[in-house]
Write a structure and sequence with these properties.
Length: 437
């Protein structure tokens, strides 16, 4: 059976080829520079600039937000990012690692601990927690259609698919202990799965890269205040990663099937992954991927669908599309939302544009299917941007999906610094240039 985790590309010793023979003089630079393949190899200038931007963003949140959830994150994170930027700028040898620790602690760990200890979170965490309680006590995480018929409160709807409630089972059983907060487990699952998504592609120093990504406001901010989208993104990245190198369609299907059973935003990833495998590897591997993914989805969603099919569709389909009796409060002034707010005709136009965008993506997959993981990931990014822009009920926060996929793609498929030099050195000795792992 093929291993889930592929070999990590490891740096060779300075001045040595992979086989231990001495490289030609000047082929590999000696010294105490940043270790190839680590975030430090980006250069101190880029790191300092990035941390300064993070500090500025967190400062804007602290000054401009009136939310009792968001503002504490900014107040804690902004000075920590600023100190991390100073450390990276002034401390030549260990500044990068110190900056990484400071930004991770100040951007994610400290504000998350503070908010969890005080029981302060965004409304989606409460929705998921209540869904977990309903699942334990009533066998379904959804209120019935009759109970929702005349409710004025959008938080009575649960737009998440059943697998998301796994993160709330601890709170449903043991109530409000800090370790039962779903956000903690969102963060843990994200860190492990995103690390796997990098490790599978052979990314060097994948733990450092995972820490850096988790420390940025793109992920640290949502993880501290809500976090429900972040593990779904990590599973999507893992599913795509498992199709690189020696493809593992069964494992990829499992990762994507679990993501699809958590939130419908993962469904396009499953479609595009299946098209990629069919075009590159043939029908049998594609059928294996689809069968495993659909099997995982059916196992996680099927029992709930059997218990309360109408409640499932009303909560997870009608409500997100703006077709329920009450509209979601989590909307942003994006084109689809603005059209839907003009009335029934505008809502139909927005829905029609969303359907046309989906059709255009499907046609592009038929006419020119992606044959590499980067090509498939870019196609997925475009599809998600179109979906979130044109959906009649959507918000800016959903753009974390294309951003997260883009970050993973850039890290996983970016040639490590110094790798080309090492290849040339080995090729000069062996008479050939070895292929990347």
């Amino acid at each position: 059976m093929t291993s889930l985790i592929g070999p990590e590309r490891r740096p060779t010793l300075a001045g040595k080829t992979p086989h231990g023979t001495k490289a030609p003089e000047g082929a590999v630079q000696r010294g105490h520079g940043p270790l190839a393949g680590t975030p430090a190899a980006l250069g101190r200038g880029w790191l300092v600039a990035g941390l300064a931007v993070c500090a500025g963003y967190a400062g804007c949140v602290a000054l401009l937000s009136s939310s009792v959830v968001e503002r504490p994150w900014g107040l804690i994170a902004a000075p920590c990012y600023a100190v991390a930027a100073v450390a990276a700028a002034l401390w030549r040898r260990r500044g990068t690692d110190v900056a990484l620790v400071l930004s991770l602690a100040g951007g994610l760990l400290a504000p998350l601990a503070w908010l969890v200890a005080r029981g302060v979170q965004q409304r989606e965490v409460n929705v998921i927690a209540w869904g977990g309680w309903l699942l334990i006590h009533h066998g379904t995480p959804y209120r019935s259609v009759a109970a929702l018929a005349h409710t004025p409160n959008p938080d009575n709807y649960n737009p998440y698919l059943p697998a998301m409630e796994v993160f709330a089972l601890g709170r449903a059983v043991w109530r409000h202990y800090p370790l039962t907060d779903p956000r903690i487990w969102f963060a843990v699952v994200f860190a492990v799965v995103f690390w796997l998504a990098l490790r599978v592609t052979g990314t060097r120093h994948s733990a450092r890269w995972t820490a850096l990504v988790a420390a940025t406001p793109v992920f640290a901010f949502p993880l501290a205040v809500s976090g429900d989208d972040v593990p779904v993104i990590a599973l999507m990245c893992l599913g795509l990663a498992l199709l690189s190198g020696p493809p593992r369609p069964g494992w990829a299907g499992l990762a994507l099937g679990v993501a699809a059973a958590m939130k419908a935003t993962a469904w396009p990833a499953l479609l595009i992954a299946a098209v990629l495998v069919a075009a590159r590897d043939g029908r049998r591997p594609a059928a294996k991927l689809a069968a495993v993914a659909l099997g995982a989805f059916a196992l996680l969603v099927g029992p709930i669908a059997a218990v309360s099919p109408s409640a499932l569709t009303d909560n997870t389909i009608a409500f997100p599309l703006g077709l329920a009796s009450v509209k979601s409060g989590a909307v942003s002034p994006l084109p689809g939302v603005l059209l839907a707010q003009t009335g029934h005709t505008g809502h139909l136009i927005a829905t029609g544009l969303l359907a046309l965008a989906g059709l255009a993506v499907v046609v592009s997959l038929v006419l020119r299917p992606p044959r590499t993981v980067p090509a498939a990931t870019w196609r997925l990014i475009v599809a998600l941007v179109l979906m979130f822009t044109l959906a009649p009920s959507t918000r800016f926060g959903y753009y974390i999906y294309p951003l997260g996929l883009g970050v993973w793609l850039w890290i996983a498929y970016r040639p490590p610094a110094g790798h080309a030099v090492e290849q040339e050195a080995a090729g000069a000795v062996e008479g050939r240039i070895p292929l990347c792992e």
